[in-house]
Design brief:
By secondary structure, the chain is of the alpha+beta class. It has a single domain, classed as 3-Layer(bba) Sandwich (Chalcone isomerase), CATH 3.50.70.20. It is built from three helices and five strands; from the N terminus they run αββαβββα. The longest helix has 20 residues, at 2-21. It starts with a helix and ends in a 16-residue tail after the last helix.
Length: 176
């Protein structure tokens, strides 16, 4: 009986010491906390916008990418669609914004050029509590590496704060 007590005491002490030194990893945007949304073009297409380089909102501060001109396409996964319809976004909602270069062809007509970036909003109330429950990601042309650091995440959130009454989301869904 005494050997069992000693073994149990040693085990509990070792476990307590190990837990005292264990820290959960801190997830930051620049550590890739928001992943590239593979397959987002198969989600529900919301709308497109053509944004000229003279758009007045680009002069506001703070403004980092994706504050640039081009053709924007917006997509939402099923959870985001539920939020767009109800105004309440559950964890797991993802909205992707794809920005394409506006290319002028030889005959003067315009159309889609290459993908310049993909911006993403991911709802996770616990992980991103400091930014209204939303994590933000920015992925440059052809890359699946999130380029937003903590300051970039905060800059995105500062802009989205103006839409607090809409769940911090600018995009609206219109039934067609």
């Amino acid at each position: 009986m005494r050997i069992r007590t000693v073994i149990l005491t040693v085990f509990v002490t070792a476990a307590t010491v190990a837990l005292a030194f264990f820290k959960a990893p801190v997830v930051r945007a620049d550590d890739g906390g928001v992943a590239f949304p593979d397959g987002y073009r198969n989600w529900i297409f919301l709308h497109s916008s053509l944004v000229p380089g003279t758009f007045s909102a680009f002069s506001k501060s703070p403004c980092v990418k994706p504050c640039t001109n081009g053709i924007f396409h917006f997509y939402a996964n099923e959870r985001a669609m539920k939020g767009l319809r109800s105004g309440v976004y559950d964890d797991g909602a993802i909205i992707a914004e794809e920005m394409l270069e506006f290319a002028i062809g030889e005959k003067g007509t315009g159309g889609e050029g290459h993908r310049v970036l993909t911006a993403v909003m991911v709802k996770d109330s616990h992980r991103y509590a400091a930014t209204g429950g939303w994590g933000f990601g920015n992925f440059d042309e052809g890359s699946k590496v999130n380029t937003l650091d903590t300051n970039g995440q905060q800059a995105c959130f500062q802009c989205h704060m103006s839409r607090k009454d809409n769940g911090y989301v600018f995009t609206q869904y219109t039934v067609r």
